[in-house]
């Protein structure tokens, strides 16, 4: 009898839904949006398409950020307990295979960016200033996508146009072809005369979109990764010599918060906005996942007033990173104090580990530079912090200076290299070096850009990845008030030779018989 009543009730709801849907959908048609072939013919539509391309990149930022940082030796994958996010743990411990969700999502997401760029490049009909700028912005985005694909996967196909159905099953590409295409796209965009430059170092408006200098920095980075040091140095000199960018001179950590969006150090960041009425359009789990594991901590004093609580703790600094800071600038180093907290510093701030609880994936050190504050939140949701309006950083001027230092040193100009490294050190309140080596630049870059999606690809191209991460994931810690416990051990772990490239996703291999797996996968 109860089942019959439930069935009748469900039928009633379905009937109401059918009537409601029919009435809602029975509307008069007003105009025609046209086809893909006719859409890209007005400035208004081109602006909409360009915004869609930017949003595509923003929507893929989470995977881009976490995949690369989890693979580096900067962080532990934390969370509430072992197995809280198995996919992230596999990345961090080098236990992943070709069927890994985040790797697959990043791979397809980069092609999504390239697709949005190709739509603008291939379909735009017209010669207006808006259209010309959009096409060259799209070339920069397309180059960015291919840069990530060639540095992470190596043999991912180059896609330089909108593919016809007969072209969907692309064979593996070659690094040489992809690099040449990255250079071509960026060179054409830079020389087009359509990409703007900031008016001065304090211009916060122009830089919210791709500028000529960001394209130059990206091309310099492409040259650097190929070992074309003289070309890289010359391209970085264009950015530095423009005098449109400078190291942020406020408190070091302040540049990573919403109040400093689009500051003088930003080469490119994906935009967020403080808009409570559209807050779910700002939704992003990036800072929710990175902030300390609120559920195992107690908060009081300054911390309770300042921090955005309700975060998940999936990004904790390794002791090796903290030790590298101490060896380079001392335990009381200014930049260290703005980047990482020790447990004693955490307690002094008003935060402690709950009695009997443990901080999984932690050795007792806590990132400060990526903590979101109450002032960063569109809405301060203590149960689920997903609506910050901190812009998503893609490149800042500090990275440009450090890449320029490496390129200049490798090209034989140690004086320039020393100058650029010392600019970074002076901002970090460190004594300038009297001379500089490649190892100095590597160390400076690790500390300055820790947990900023840079180090993993650097370690691979320098040939340092196996040394740095060969044992990564062998043992996994948890921190308690009594100290560090190592309760989890893996038989399979660490960076191996095959990890010089990420695996072509299994889904791609199954759907495309022309694709071959990368070596070792």
UniProtKB/TrEMBL annotation:
UniProt keyword annotations, A-Z: Cell outer membrane, Membrane, Signal
Protein source organism: Xylanibacter ruminicola (Prevotella ruminicola)
Matches recorded under SUPFAM superfamilies: TPR-like (SSF48452)
Annotated ranges, domain RagB/SusD: 390-521
Domain SusD-like N-terminal, first and last residues per copy: 94-224
Entry protein name: Starch-binding associating with outer membrane
GO cellular component: cell outer membrane
Parts of the chain that traverse the membrane: none
Compartments it resides in: Cell outer membrane
PROSITE patterns membership: PROKAR_LIPOPROTEIN (PS51257)
